[in-house]
């Protein structure tokens, strides 16, 4: 009996030690630099947004944050890599809903589960897409004019995207379904090449998050924005909803995730750091310049957003993207 009692006490002691050790580790986190994987090439919206937040989060967390670009597969490669990392809080992921909601409805063999293979931390910022055309190939200057032109020239127009199942692809297919027009989808390896293709006249249209340089120089026409709210960079540009496509509202976002099994205390520490970061006035100004709306929600709110968005996109994929183009 005494030996049994002693063994129970020893087991309890080990359990308490493990729990308190984990708690102490979480309390002192972070104790070294943090690596944040961005699963896209440098220079894009996800990369730029991640770097802006990293600069402020370094102050909040007291440790350097090193951004590592790991592009490939439309973001799949970098996202998958983080899903298989040790959950110690020193390798994290900043990515768009491209890898976490857009792919799920269209990829039958996605190598990770966006909801179970990551620990949600916070949604950093959201943004809409800019509907831009080449003025040399498309004479329309408004969304209604574009629709009329497309109907007068059936099957003549094409649009670029950053790949099948991407935000720009969904934007184009929903636009086609709501207007009844015909356009051919032309996928590129990233939004950047797609924008350049429109500028060169290879394609007529793209829904892009960042085409400021070409809009401001007059090389592209901005017809409208996909978000339900106007883009802060172009407050005079109407949303597609305002242009007659009632209910049209497609956004993208940049979210913060850890590997599965991340310590809840570390998760909470990081989530609160994001909330504090979006109070930084310089960060807010930089986000606004890029058409980004800061969010900073909780892990649970991020999870619920992903579930709702995935369900919505799955419905879109089943109804207007049955034939992947």
CATH superfamily of the largest domain: Bordetella uptake gene, domain 1
* CATH level 1 class label of the largest domain: Alpha Beta
Shape: globular
- Helices, by number, come to 11
End-to-end distance: 72 Å
Radius of gyration: 22 Å
Are there runs of 5+ residues with pLDDT below 50, and where? 17-24
User: How many beta-strand elements?
Assistant: 11
The biggest sheet, with number of strands, parallel, antiparallel or mixed sense and barrel status, is: 6 strands, mixed
- Mean pLDDT, nearest integer? 89
Helix vs. strand class:
alpha/beta
Q: What is the chain-wise order of helices and strands?
A: HEHEHEHEEHEHEHEHEEHHEH
- Structurally, the number of domains stands at 2
Beta-strand residue fraction: 15-25%
CATH-defined fold name of the largest domain: D-Maltodextrin-Binding Protein, domain 2
Q: Strands across the major sheet, in which order?
A: 2-1-3-10-4-11
CATH architecture label of the largest domain:
3-Layer(aba) Sandwich
Helix share bin: 40-55%
Give structural notes.
- 43% of the residues lie in helices and 18% in strands.
- With 325 residues, it is α/β, with parallel strands linked by helices.
- It folds into 2 domains: 164 residues, Bordetella uptake gene, domain 1 (D-Maltodextrin-Binding Protein, domain 2, 3-Layer(aba) Sandwich), CATH 3.40.190; 96 residues, D-Maltodextrin-Binding Protein, domain 2.
- The strands form 2 sheets. It has a 6-stranded mixed sheet with strand order 2-1-3-10-4-11, sandwiched between helices.
- Helix 6 links the parallel strand 6 and strand 7.
- Helix 2 crosses helix 9.
């Amino acid at each position: 009996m005494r030996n049994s009692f002693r063994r129970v006490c020893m087991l309890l002691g080990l359990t308490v030690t493990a729990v308190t050790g984990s708690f102490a580790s979480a309390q002192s986190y972070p104790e070294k630099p943090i690596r944040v994987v961005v699963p896209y090439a440098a220079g894009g919206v996800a990369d730029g947004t991640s770097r802006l937040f990293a600069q402020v989060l370094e102050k909040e967390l007291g440790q350097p944050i090193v951004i590592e670009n790991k592009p490939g597969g439309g973001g799949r490669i970098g996202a998958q890599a983080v899903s298989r990392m040790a959950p110690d809080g020193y390798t994290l992921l900043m990515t768009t809903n491209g890898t976490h909601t857009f792919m799920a409805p269209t990829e039958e063999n996605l190598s990770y589960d966006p909801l179970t293979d990551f620990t949600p931390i916070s949604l950093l910022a959201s943004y809409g897409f800019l509907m831009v055309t080449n003025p040399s190939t498309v004479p329309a200057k408004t969304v209604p004019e574009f629709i009329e032109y497309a109907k007068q020239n059936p099957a003549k127009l094409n649009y670029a995207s950053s790949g099948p199942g991407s935000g720009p692809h969904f934007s184009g297919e929903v636009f086609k379904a709501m207007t009844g027009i015909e356009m051919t989808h032309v996928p590129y390896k990233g939004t950047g090449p797609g924008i350049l293709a429109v500028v060169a006249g290879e394609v007529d249209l793209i829904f892009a998050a960042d085409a400021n340089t070409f809009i401001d120089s007059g090389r592209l026409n901005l017809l409208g924005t996909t978000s339900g709210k106007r883009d802060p960079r172009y407050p005079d540009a109407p949303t597609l909803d305002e242009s007659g496509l009632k209910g049209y509202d497609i956004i993208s976002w940049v979210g913060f995730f850890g590997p599965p099994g991340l310590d809840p205390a570390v998760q909470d520490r990081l989530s609160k750091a994001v909330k504090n970061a979006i109070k930084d006035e310089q960060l807010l100004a930089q986000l606004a310049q890029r058409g980004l709306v800061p969010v900073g929600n909780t892990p649970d709110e991020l999870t619920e957003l992903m579930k709702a968005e995935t369900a919505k996109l799955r419905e879109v994929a089943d109804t207007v993207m049955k034939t992947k183009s």
